[in-house]
């Protein structure tokens, strides 16, 4: 991601750095600046370029792999697997669950608290 394919992290933002990276990669893919099949920098390289810990970039990549947007193979590196829209339509429940799990962790909820919140919300939405 060089030139117009630039990811920038705003350290003054309320949004976690890994989310900023994830959101910007999604934007680059959605706008066609990173087409399907494009290779992304390694976790270490992007972390170095952005001045972030490798774990921060790894978390962004993992989130995008979980939703099917990225795929990683040792021999080929990390590549764009599908558009965010295509990934969201193939597994909408998994994508929603992943987003919820990320938010629950961000606010410090443990698994039991998060599951209880889902159960309460699901029951409250029943007709």
Automatic annotation (TrEMBL):
**Gene3D superfamilies recorded for this chain?**
Winged helix-like DNA-binding domain superfamily/Winged helix DNA-binding domain (1.10.10.10)
Residue span(s) of domain HTH gntR-type: 15-83
Kindly state which keywords UniProt assigns to this record, in alphabetical order.
DNA-binding, Transcription, Transcription regulation
Query: Entry's Pfam families?
Result: GntR
Q: Look up the domain of life of the source.
A: Bacteria
Matching entries from SMART domains are given as:
HTH_GNTR
Listed SUPFAM superfamilies: Winged helix' DNA-binding domain
Q: What protein am I looking at?
A: GntR family transcriptional regulator
From what organism does this protein derive? Saccharopolyspora ipomoeae
